[in-house]
Amino acid sequence: MANKRSFVRAVLLFFLCAVLVVGCKTTDVIDGLGAVQLGGFRLSESQVGALKKTAVALEKAFTDITPEQEYYVGRAVGATLLGKYSPRTDSQTVEYLNLVGQSLARVSDMPETYGGYHFVLLEDEGINAFAAPGGLIFISRGMLRCCKDEDALAAVLAHEIAHVQLKHGLQAIKTSRLTSAFSIMATEGAKQAGGPQLAQLTGIFEDSIHDVTATLVNSGYSRAFEREADVAALEILRRAGYDQRALVAMLGEMKQRLNPQGLDFAKTHPDPADRIADLAPQLAGVKTPAGMTVRQQRFQRILGSI
Amino acid sequence: MPRKILLLLLFCLAATPALAKQEWLNVAVRNGALRQQPMPFGKIIATLGYGERVDVLAEQGLWRKVRDQKQGREGWMHSASLIAKPITLKPGERLEGGASEDELALGGKGFNAQVEAQYKARGKNLDYASVDWMERIQVSPEAMREFLAKGGLQNPEGGNTHGK
User: For the CA atoms of chain A, what is the radius of gyration?
Assistant: First the structure.
């Protein structure tokens, strides 16, 4: 009997481990386990609880961050960037930038976010553009100087929208932090967070924001992420009716202006020449879309003197 | 012995009702546009709030024809603005369908306004006032329409073909 029980136990544990590793709907399987009774062997409630917590922690990743949580991460990243650089607030610039931005965001694969897309120009001479998770998008004056027309500006913004859509910012957060955050959320159950748990969560939040801003400002994304964002940007430009080749034109201008020792895009992004080479095959046969002259004129009128 | 293993496997199969097709979805954005047509710039009939539930009536590419459970309004929403898992709970509200405690825990939990307030209090060089200003930036539908039309960009009603 003892042998039989330990065999069943072994099979059961093996099965649970297998499910844990596979990770699909683990919690659903474990949820029902309190009722398991096989050959006199029964998992106690606390054993089920412990297994469930482990399973929950294992399943959690950046994809489990709710849109609302992503929004709070984005706000904190935005508050950090705006603590460092001042935004340009004249209404003509703000409106124009947001019209260009919205015309792109609406045709992207993620046209709406929890808090929406919002675009600002930063008073920064370095060549920079940042996308905080959730859709707060920043472009520096230095970057604007790399844009000769509205289509080039659209290319920069489309690339940043692509980072939001692809959730690249959230992926900069170390998985271990999310695992800890979700464990705290699981243990507190449906109760309101408070006291030590709130302090713990805030600590994890602080570290997570640091992960994202350090990636945006210092280390940059991987070349693979940048390529992914460039490809998505081309599709967004096409759908909106902008010239896809403006992305390459902008990168060429950036190559001219970039100081290789700079602390801006020179440090955080792949060499523009590499990005141009990556994009070349996708642009064969692309024709100039209508309306270039009108767009060029309004760009000059509104942003030409900045 | 094999009978018991079989029983266990059968049990595991039976214990996955949550995999059954869920008919309603949650709005995953704070101001979800319910549009007359399945187009990026289609006319907005209503705005649905975060966590509101909608029934899916039809699909067209990345668009879903939905009906909101509260008021029965029908229109089109982009699939990226909808999410299958329960994401929010209003005070006193219970989730139907026997949601687990962990799912309940995710409603408004984790990184939320409370955490932001604490983070802000600890804050070094954080400019939340500018973030709030940035979030208030809106472009009107009229300005958008004019911008698109004059710039030769796509048809203001969204006559492009994206979203296969």
Answer: 25
